[in-house]
Amino acid sequence: MIEIADAIREGSNAYLKRQNKTLAIFVLIMAILLWILLDFRIALAYILGTICTALASFLGMAAAVRANVITANAARGSLNDAFKIAFYGGAVMGLSIVGMALLGISVLYLIFGPEGLDVVLGFSFGASALALFAKAGGGIYTKTADIGADLVGKVELGIPEDDPRNPAVIADNVGDNVGDVAGTGADLIDSYIACVVAAMILGRTLGINFVVLPLLIGAIGIFASLIGTFFC
């Protein structure tokens, strides 16, 4: 079990490293264009948005690949213990998403103030750009590995699905982590950032207090989630 989990973890990390190296080139080019066409502050916010999104995805996937094997081992003795481990492992992704999103937006708002919401939009654009490629790339890898593993295992060799005798199952499980965990995490943080930034922009028409209100609601939500997680 540990050997298989190590192989899945190694494959997932290798995929993320390759993906982030490729996306770094795209992010750099877009940041330069934003600097030239708009403002260097928007370009910096764009880069910060991509970093926060990539970091949240990595933290969530790193927790998932470690929690998977612990959950499977715990399920041998108690389903209740297995559920708690799986829940705590998933909570890492959820709290990382909300934490990185609110941290990035709050820092930019603290530096540039209410009149710098255009800069915060750059942060949202950066998160959206990275999430687009992370979700699409992870989905393509997931389905390709899934189809390949099924063709080799069930069709050609006649062994059951997800059988450990099929080496392609490792790639299939790697795809589940990079697509369903890291890719979905990037998609979620992108949506969360867009919602908060949109609410802040709408709040500016009503007054300064309404600009900060979405951040306060998000902060209260984090504390509420921490309390709920603690008593799980």
UniProtKB/TrEMBL annotation:
Keywords: Ion transport, Magnesium, Membrane, Translocase, Transmembrane, Transmembrane helix, Transport. Its main location: membrane. GO terms for molecular function: diphosphate hydrolysis-driven proton transmembrane transporter activity; inorganic diphosphate phosphatase activity. The keyword Ion transport applies. GO terms for cellular component: endomembrane system; membrane. It is a multi-pass membrane protein. InterPro entries: PPase-energised_H-pump (IPR004131). The keyword Ion transport applies. It holds the Pfam family H_PPase. It is found in: Endomembrane system. Signal peptide: none annotated. Coiled coil: none annotated. This is Sodium-translocating pyrophosphatase. It comes from marine sediment metagenome. The lineage of its organism: unclassified sequences, metagenomes, ecological metagenomes.
